[in-house]
Amino acid sequence: MGWKIVPMAAVIAVVAALGFNGRGDAPPRTPVLPSQVAASRCAVQLDDAGPAAWPVWVDPPGQPASAVAAVEAVTAPGRGGAALRIGLLSGADAYTGAHAYYTHQLPAGAQAFALSFDYLLPPTSLNNREHPSIAQAFEISLSLWKKSDKAGVFYRYEWGLQYQIVGNTAPDWRLWNGTDWVTTGIQQELVGGDDRWHTVLIEGYVGADRDGNGHGDDLRYVAMRSDDLAIPLGIDLPLQEVQVDASQDYATVAVQLDGNFQQDPYAVTIDNVVLCPYATSPWGD
User: Fold this and answer.
1) What is the value of pTM for the model shown?
2) Quick one: which of 94, 138, 148, 205 is 20 to 30 A from 29 by CA?
3) Structural domains of the chain, with CATH
């Protein structure tokens, strides 16, 4: 199947209406998967680090003690070698999520990133068609944490994608704008179940230091890709200032499973998690 380039004007019209500073100048190209980039540049197979390297917590905090989320290593189903199964299990309130993350030390000067996952969704209906969907949404994110000149304060640059399974505009892809999930207007029906592998990619970079204050003033979503959909974005968003107990810059790669109104247990399997950092944007925008 050939790649489908979603018209950029359609995306920009949606995000502009939602208050994004989207300049609309992202190039109409097919994003390249990190696995197709020189391996020496990339941190490959982050999932192979195993469950101990992927702590999991229940979101939001304050759930009953019986709330359970877990990460386990599996070989089947997998795309060769080990994979990770992240489970949202039992005992939590409705609409609770399981958040698993991996911490990666970045090379000095890293400012641009490409992140991709292969993943298996559970067998489920979409948007409660015919019967209740067992999953509410599936999320991936990349956060860059850079030290500021204030004690204990880091600048957080966060890129996030959510495949919304149940919702007013579902099934669709949404972006994290720093405070909330907002739709891109791009709908896609993804089938769950064993051997129904999907691939998602996000590209982004830290904006220029236009104010001369020593750090990038914002972050840019360059493009995303989901299976056969290539979606140029060209969206700028503000950074966040957060208190962090750390001594150096780092990145976190995360996935989150969002539960439904019945809090049905389910799992998502991830494989081939690849993160490619760059000193400058390689995308020509």
Assistant:
1) 0.85
2) 138
3) 4-278 (2.60.120.260)
